[in-house]
Specification:
Layout lengths: L1 E4 L5 E7 L3 E7 L9 H16 L4 E5 L6 E3 L19 H11 L3 E6 L2 E3 L1 H8 L2 E5 L3 E3 L2 H4 L5 H8 L4 H10 L3 E2 H6 L5 E3 L4 H13 L3 H16 L5 H15 L2 H12 L9
Parallel strand pairs: 3-4, 4-6, 5-7, 6-8, 7-9, 8-11
Antiparallel strand pairs: 1-2, 2-3, 9-10
Length: 267
């Protein structure tokens, strides 16, 4: 099964392992596996196909042994999109598809994970990683304000001070600390990553699929039960609007493209 293939640039492919486990592999080497719009659309289509086939467990990730699992958003596309993490955008759509998948999605992580790709990994039900894994939330580097829904995914899974460290400092969380705080369920050597993830997937696939699906959906609903007053939502929306429309955001994107440090002025 394949939804996007270009041998020189981007591939997103899916196949079935042992009739019970699916595996989706994405690759975009020239852009460090960046989550381009085309890649995200193809990823969403692969998830839909596997769900239609009632595959109870899915492994999701790039190729093992690459330096970068995913660089996150393709920043080259952000010049035309001032708010790439808003509701309805391709990344948010894929995150919802992962969280709503009628089975278990396991992120198989080899290499560093940046920005929106961290959200993708954390939206999966389980994370198996090798020791090259690192997780860095970098929106502050370019002036992009993260969404409330995205922050809640971190808020529900990380201690508050670690969450602030990741978003304020934008420095990578190494594999050992990530495992210590529960971001990684299983940390293994690189040569054991595929087999360990597959063993976990087959073990889950042998369980009662309707029971597993029911528990996953209950947990998703419970996690989403975060009522906020209308005034707070309006205030957050205005803060995000200002940041997305700011000169700082333009400066952040320009500095990234020019490979220099940005000069932020708070305007």
């Amino acid at each position: 099964m394949s939804h996007l293939e270009n041998e020189t640039v981007v591939t997103v492919t899916a196949h079935i392992i042992d009739q019970r486990v699916g595996q989706i592999v994405f690759s975009n080497p020239p852009r460090r596996n960046a989550l381009s719009v085309d890649l995200l659309h193809a990823l969403d289509a692969c998830l839909a196909d596997l769900a239609a086939q009632r595959i109870p467990v899915v492994l999701l990730g790039g190729k093992v042994g690459q330096e970068v699992w995913s660089a996150g958003h393709d920043l080259g596309e952000l010049a035309h999109d001032r708010d790439p993490v808003a509701y309805g955008k391709p990344l948010e759509k894929v995150l919802r598809s992962v969280r709503a998948y009628p089975g278990v999605v396991i992120a198989m992580v080899s290499g560093s994970v940046w920005g929106g790709a961290v959200d993708l990994a954390m939206s999966c039900d389980l994370v198996v990683a090798d020791r090259s894994a690192r997780f860095a939330m970098t929106p502050a580097n370019i002036g992009l304000p993260y969404t409330t829904s995205g922050l809640l995914r971190f808020f529900n899974n990380l201690p508050i001070h670690l969450l602030k460290e990741m978003f304020f400092c934008a420095k990578p969380l190494d594999a050992e600390r990530a495992a210590h705080f529960g971001v990684i369920n299983c940390l293994v050597e690189q040569d054991l990553l595929q087999s360990t993830a597959l063993d976990m997937a087959l073990g889950i696939a042998a369980k009662a699929p309707l029971a597993v699906r029911a528990v996953k959906e209950q947990l998703r609903i419970l996690e989403d039960m975060q009522p906020l007053p209308v005034q707070a939502l309006e205030q957050i929306a205005e803060l995000r609007r200002q940041a997305c429309a700011s000169e700082d955001f333009s400066e952040g994107l320009a500095a990234f493209a020019e490979r220099r440090q940005p000069v932020f002025r708070g305007v």
